[in-house]
Amino acid sequence: MLKAHFKKKLPTFELEADISLSNGILALVGPSGAGKTTILQCLAGLQTPSWGEINIHGKNVFSSQHGTDVPIRNRRIGYVFQDYALFPNMTVEKNVMYGKPKKGSVPNKVLTAANVLEMLKIEHLRNRYPNQISGGEKQRVALARALMTEPELLLLDEPLSALDQDTRSTLQQELLKLQAQWQIPFILVTHDPQEAEMLGDQIIKLDRGKQEGIRKLHRVQ
Amino acid sequence: MEFSYIPIILSLKVALAAVIIVACSSIPIAALMAKREFWGKDVVESIITLPLVLPPSVIGFMLLYVFGKNGPLGKLFELWFHTRIVFTLAGAVIAAAVVAFPLMYQAVKVAIENVDQNLEKAARTLGARELRVFFTITLPLALNGIVAGLVLAFARSLGEFGATLMIAGNIPGKTQTMPIAIYFANEAGDTGQASILVIIMTVFSFLVIYGLNRWGKGPRRDTRGGGA
What we know:
The structure holds 2 protein chains of 2 kinds. Chain A is an alpha/beta fold. Chain A is built from 6 helices and 11 strands. Chain A folds into 2 domains: 1-76 and 152-221, 3-Layer(aba) Sandwich (Rossmann fold); 87-150, no CATH class. Chain B has helices at 6-35, 41-53, 56-67, 72-81, 89-113, 117-125, 130-141, 143-159, 162-168, 178-187, 191-217. The chains are: A alpha/beta, B mainly alpha.
């Protein structure tokens, strides 16, 4: 469950986000420079909002009023970067294992690299380096790496924009499946309205930092 | 006169010790300067780079002042270790380290700044603390620059003359490094000794520059995040 209402001053406009999401996929759609990535970064703790509150699963991770600002590493948020940000000095397996919680710290699920790699169909790549795999494969590795931390919220910044049409359609389907399996809220940034329609249970349109429309859809699974 | 290889050994000792000091000090300082903003940062940056542009005699003079018998650090050394710095090999090491520091610092700082910040951010979202981010992401990806800095610092230490002469003097077998031995052999008309040392230094310097150039053109590790 995510509840966030915050503002962030940017050089040319002020961004305002008001998001409430319990499960499913929220698609943030808008042109380049609308502030979509800034919203994700504020939620993750990579940027600090100028005002507002962010609550994840009832836990207050940011509050300008109370001076709360929980460090990124304690927010339990998975983040998939636009360019995947895979560590080039590590194999696929080491990338995926990088964020695995220490034993005992998260008792609810038993996650091993093997089953995350299998779920995303990348077991055969475990000993390769990021520069030896394709764009679609990189995307799966980035997803696996983020899920390995057992996040309570997954943020995806234009995860499919650099992929060809075929890979893109396949991965869209897989994202839907993954969300249904994982049962945590996903926020997905995209500049493609069609993709937003296809993936979003909820769509927020953003233009120059203002939320222009919120639509709740009931997707037929 | 018979050829003496002792200056070569002394030079190697000095350069090695100086490089160790420079490596240990420049990496944390460069990381701090690349990553943190603080008041007066430009002044600190200028002071760090100063030995690169100051004449060696000025550096030598300053070192004599600081490490001399009545200098603040000279006195401390005398008190703690019952030893002096001036006219010892330690003085030569300090002189070499001071002139080599900015070269290493610049190389490391640029290398750290060039590491894709998204990779460091990604590591943080994966639960890593700052030290882990630094040792598992930043440092390995800046390795090319660090190695280049080490080689340059070693070469510069080996070639240090002016400041070394002022603080360590010219004591054959004790502080007489290669560049100093060349100068005094030439002054004394011993061109044989001077020529051999000149050839060794030139060949070595050539190999360093050639090696760095070749390495720079070689297959570099991709420091970007595997983007398409």
